[in-house]
Specification:
The protein is α+β, with helices and mostly antiparallel strands. It folds into two domains: about 35 residues; about 140 residues, Nucleoside Triphosphate Pyrophosphohydrolase (Alpha-Beta Complex). About 20% of the residues lie in helices and about 40% in strands. The chain is built from three helices and eleven strands. The strands form three sheets. Strands 4, 7, 8, 9 and 10 form a five-stranded mixed sheet that branches. It has a three-stranded antiparallel sheet with strand order 1-2-3, with no helix packed on it. It is elongated. The protein starts with a strand and ends with a helix. The model has no long low-confidence stretch (mean pLDDT about 90).
Length: about 190
Amino acid sequence: MENAKLIDTEVITEGPKRFVREKLRMPDDVEIDWYYIDTPGSVMIVPITASGDVVLIRQYRHNLKKHTLELPAGTVMKGESPKDAALRELREETGFELEAHSALIALGDYFVMPSETNRNAHLFLAPSVVMGTEKPSGDTQIEKYFDMSVCSLPLAEAVAAIGQEIHGIETAAALLLAGTALNADPS
């Protein structure tokens, strides 16, 4: 597909997640339609409290028709850095904030379902979070309709919940990466 010629692009649905169809001519002159979801970048944060608990979100996911247990996450807004987006999402979804002496640790950025979307997720570890002065507000678009609640588990229990209560591959990967980063940290 690397040598395919782009013939036409059609945006089937506009933002915030655009569904796109591209008509491609392959090197052997066969034409195919390629569909994908065009999304802005995203962030996911692994917030750890002083007692070693990871702060998670339990929420209803309409497309799955079930509640999920996930890490705080969201979209990087236009003009916003991934770090700023991570701190904003942490506040909006959990009410927690990064402790003053602490800094976010980048765990890398990864493509999410590269066969279906071009979404790039920036993962961060927030190694020391505290409850802020504001209650979680959610964003102004759709989170107000989500049945969201904040909960916390010891990191080891959260990792053990992968495949049991935690089914999102992004949350699973971020928890495992955070565990590795914390175990490698000499402090």
